[in-house]
Amino acid sequence: MINWNLILSDIEQQEGVPVTTDPDRWNLDTPGYSEIYKMWKKANFNPTAIKWINYYPGTHFPESIVKEVADMLGLKGVHRSWISRIDPGYMAPHHWDIDDNEEDYLKHGPITRYTVIIKKFAHGHIFILENSYFYNTPKNTTILWRTHRDWHSGINAGMEPNYLFHILGY
To answer: 65, 83 in Cβ contact below 8 A?
Structure first.
């Protein structure tokens, strides 16, 4: 079994890759990005409250973790994976994940996506996937997405960071 506490203690010392509403960080020419960005603006989201941080295998945590999770889930291969973090007071509003490499992934067949709760949810941690709300969710809960393009969001109204592990494979 993966020692997520050890992985998180390493990650907590690293910067990671922040995702914000800064349009210079988004390729607004890619279909989907512009749609989501405009949707957030139209809904009047506070852009300073939209932020999450991604951590990637081989850069922020060992690649072996991805293989171990993929094996546990019965995936034949992995397209990509990452750990996301939402700090207290921030959110990842309603969106679906745009991936510039989706066409390449589909050459292997349907894309399967999972999210794993890797830290015990604390008060205020909420993950929303389509019409399902996850809060007070036990650590190591694995969530199978209906499709890799499901609409989702995350909110941290609590007092400590929330971490999730995401994996797309076949």
So the answer is: no
DSSP 109-151: SS-EEEEEE-S---TTEEEEETTEEE-SPPTT-EEE-SSTT--
Return the CATH number at 50. Answer: 2.60.120.10
What does each of the 170 residues of the chain score in pLDDT, given as a tens digit? Answer: 899 999 999 999 999 999 998 877 777 777 788 889 889 999 999 999 999 999 999 999 999 999 999 999 999 999 999 999 999 999 999 999 998 899 999 999 999 999 999 999 999 999 999 999 999 999 999 999 999 999 999 999 999 999 999 999 99
Range of the domain at 80: 4-169
φ, ψ of residue 17 in degrees (nearest 5): -115, 105
Number of domains comprising the chain: 1
Q: Alpha carbon 71 to chain centroid distance? A: 20
Determine which helix (DSSP H) or strand (DSSP E) holds 10, and give its type and residue range. helix 4-11
**CA–CA gap between residue 167 and residue 67 (Å, rounded):** 10
- What are the CA-CA distances from residue 116 to residues 20, 81, 85, 102 (Å)? 23, 11, 13, 21
